[in-house]
Amino acid sequence: MAQADESWGGDTTITKVTVNGGKPIAVGIANVVTFPGSVTAADPDGIETAGVHVWHGTSEEDTDMTVPKGSRICTVVNSTTKTCGVTFKLDPRDLRKNAWAGRWNVAVDAFDKGNGGISLNAYKYAYIQRYSKLSVNASPEPVAKGKSITVTGKLTRANWETHDYRGCTDQPVKLQFRKAGTDTYTTVKTVHTNSTGNLKTTVTASTDGYWRYYFSGTSTTATVKTAGDFVDVR
């Protein structure tokens, strides 16, 4: 639950806050997603407990949702400092609007062993994204050297309002190639999805190797890449 910024006692400080290790949280349409969060707080009197909360909205009075979590587990760092962690559990069915994808607020609070404490409404931010899927197909297989290869695919993302996957339109997706016998992919060109999320482009066959699509994601949509599709060039 969002709280107004407040400090009492004057000595309690927040020294570290992490949510999912700083990485975005990708949420699909069916599976409950769990991710960790922790807060480290210090006070000359010692810390009794501390909490971390993830919520979406514009203010304490206008909160859309607070992510549920399990019981907190606190560990003493030293006589003045304690770290408290929780596991958040986010059910896609609770995400009622696609517009909620993107930046979420991270609130923290801490209470010392005396009468002091601190509560901060938006200490930092976490990003909760719509899970994405991507496909690739390179053909023909095999192909004569110097001939054209057509590489198709589709980029879709979770629709939290309809509980299915819909085409992700007008997005830049990298076409990458890895020569057989090597480990590194190189970007050949950037292809944009059409109005239904489909991808299609052509390249010239030169050597055996693997073709894949790679989408770097946005603040609201998760990063995704395909496995490589092997093409035998003869």
Automatic annotation (TrEMBL):
Name under which the protein is recorded: Calcium-binding protein
